[in-house]
């Protein structure tokens, strides 16, 4: 299974669950820039991708997963860093870059611009010389799981199950455990009669 993800998405938990349940099915994970997310799916580079909406959904299945808070990410010396929160009006006088890439980070580091990115990007790519502030009047962005309608990879449904929190008691999971030689967990016995069983939207910060 080949899984793509845009910057800011953390797959640690889902990868761990997959490796526990499907030891014989390797999960190949690769980061793709947001500008390349649709191409990665269309070209078959990945079977599924954690995309940031909006995206052209023609020929795709998508499942919306969660929303992200927009922030302005900038050098500590940038003037907007003096605020606790930022609005569109605050940003109007400054150069704001919305296409996240290594080159745009260079612009921000040297205070040539500020980046408008999801909070997840600023956190996962955290730098000591940069800070972020919430954009309080901006609509949140959404992360979705997407895959091509014509992709018949039999493991797609299983990965959806992992992401959605499905338990390990599916038929295919049990079958894979049998192949790997891992025994199923024994069912807990009921105690016999007479026996005793063994013992978020927070408040907006004020401007400085």
From TrEMBL:
Annotated region (Disordered), positions in chain:
167-208
InterPro entries found in the cross-reference section: LysR_subst-bd
Key word Magnesium present: no
Q: Name one GO molecular function term.
A: DNA binding
User: Pfam families per the record?
Assistant: LysR_substrate
Q: Which SUPFAM superfamilies match?
A: Periplasmic binding protein-like II
Q: Name the keywords, alphabetized.
A: DNA-binding, Transcription, Transcription regulation
Name all LysR substrate-binding domain ranges.
3-97
Its cellular-component GO annotations read: protein-DNA complex
Q: To which protein family does this belong? A: Belongs to the LysR transcriptional regulatory family.
| UniProt xrefs under PANTHER family | HCA OPERON TRANSCRIPTIONAL ACTIVATOR HCAR (PTHR30346:SF0), TRANSCRIPTIONAL DUAL REGULATOR HCAR-RELATED (PTHR30346)
Could you tell me what this protein is called?
A: LysR family transcriptional regulator
Query: Native species of this protein?
Result: Tessaracoccus rhinocerotis
